[in-house]
Design a protein that fits this description.
four-stranded antiparallel β-sheet
Length: about 120
Amino acid sequence: HVQLVESGGGLVQPGGSLRLSCEVSGSIYNRYCMGWFRQRQGNEREGVAATDTDGSRHYADSLKGRFTISKGSGEQTMTLTMTNLKPEDTAVYYCASTRDGWCTQDDSLYPYWGQGTQVTVS
């Protein structure tokens, strides 16, 4: 049974930092691409960052340098560290997984999703 549970969202001032966590249960953690998406109010869901099974990391161009995705080696926990946060980063953030080792920006190819965690920058 696959389950993804996000945590770590909250309210932060502009310029601040947050670290989101995604606890993964099931056998997907080291088998498939895992990533973070976000949905800002009134917008479509968009890719934030993702990591392939070979450890390659991919970021949305607009977020490079501020966001970092990582996967723990001991625990099945993926994190997203966000720095220098801006009001436009306000969104619900989701972790997700594909059924493939390689990542894609097409969110329709991610069958596994967490429930989301709200990040508010204000």
